[in-house]
Design goal:
The complex is a heterodimer of chains A (153) and B (105). Chain A has 153 residues and is an alpha+beta fold. In chain A, 15% of the residues lie in helices and 39% in strands. Chain A contains three helices and nine strands, in the order H-H-H-E-E-E-E-E-E-E-E-E. In chain A, the strands form two sheets. In chain A, strands 1, 3, 5, 6, 8 and 9 form a six-stranded mixed sheet that branches. In chain A, strands 2-4-7 form a three-stranded antiparallel sheet, with no helix packed on it. In chain A, a hairpin with a 2-residue loop joins strand 8 and strand 9. The longest helix of chain A has 11 residues. Chain A is globular, with a radius of gyration of 16 Å. The two termini of chain A are 21 Å apart. Chain B is mostly beta strands and 105 residues long. Chain B has no helices and seven strands. Chain B has a four-stranded antiparallel sheet, with no helix packed on it. A three-stranded antiparallel sheet of chain B has the order 1-2-5, with no helix packed on it. In chain B, a hairpin with a 2-residue loop joins strand 1 and strand 2. The chains are: A alpha+beta (153), B mainly beta (105). Chains A and B meet through strand 6 and strand 7 of A and strand 3, strand 4 and strand 5 of B. Strand 6 of chain A pairs antiparallel with strand 4 of chain B, so a sheet runs across the interface.
């Protein structure tokens, strides 16, 4: 029921992407530790630049578990696992969102470098996981197709 | 006691503790509009800290790209009896925390 009214309200708002309106990331009032730079970053490249991970090495030791097709872009479960030794940070970037920078996880002692959480996605997008191990950055990508309705197209 | 916004489950297995948390929060991005066409102000959790026995095991920095009523799950090397504490803070400076002992309901 909730979802139905959600869809309706997005249509009223005239959004061309059905689940889109709810997915837009904040461009205002984001005042986290990184200041405003990250919230202003509009593309994957910009985010990579700000976190200093440009030219991150692609690695198959990073596993992204995400659905190939997500029927509801408002709730997409994503698990990111890093098998790289000495992983301290995992950054999750949703490339096609207005604010691609989605989440950053910092691991303390004893934590296993794998996290599962749920993200919003405005449209079909690449999910990019950037892993920091030591002083180096590694990355991996997965594509998630976001369908408009609930038809599983 | 007011009902907590956090549901926290912990489970120990083979030297690992699985932590699962579900937080009740709107996670508004600040760009969505209500039915009257007014913008809903941004309201989302930007920091979650999980501690085990007072030591940080995971810090999550979130943005509005994280789903409403966020869910978080991860493992760390721990044992029964560990005190796991989860604290969140949002961009409107609201905060909540919960502490649980591993292996206890």
């Amino acid at each position: 029921m909730k979802r139905r009214s959600f869809l309706k309200s997005t249509m009223v708002a005239g959004a061309s992407i059905a689940v889109g309106a709810g997915v837009l990331s904040p461009t205002i009032a984001l005042a986290d530790k990184h200041g405003n730079d990250l919230s202003k970053a509009k593309s994957l490249d910009e985010v990579m630049k700000i976190i200093g991970a440009t030219g991150a090495e692609a690695s198959d030791k990073i596993k992204i578990k995400a659905p190939e097709i997500a029927e509801n872009g408002a709730v997409v479960p994503v698990t990111i696992t890093s098998e790289i030794e000495g992983t301290t940070e995992i950054i999750s970037i949703t490339a096609a969102n207005p604010t691609p920078y989605s989440a950053k996880y910092t691991f303390g002692e004893g934590a296993i470098a794998s996290v599962k959480s749920r993200f919003k996605m405005g449209k079909t997008t690449d999910v990019v996981a950037v892993v920091k191990a030591g002083d180096k950055y590694y990355m991996a990508k997965a594509n998630v197709k976001v369908t408009k309705g609930g038809c599983g197209g | 006691m007011a009902k907590s916004t956090i549901k926290l489950r912990t489970k120990e297995k083979g030297g690992k503790v699985q932590v699962k948390a579900l937080i009740t929060h709107p996670m508004d991005t600040g760009l969505q509009k209500n039915k009257k066409g007014e913008k809903i102000p941004a309201h989302y959790i930007n920091e979650v800290v999980v501690e085990a026995n007072g030591k940080m095991v995971l810090t999550a920095e979130w943005t509005g790209s994280v789903s409403k009523n966020p869910f978080l799950s991860f493992n760390y090397a721990g044992a029964k009896g560990d005190k796991v504490k989860l604290t969140w803070k949002d961009n409107q400076d609201k905060t909540d925390s919960i502490e649980k002992e591993v292996g206890k309901k």
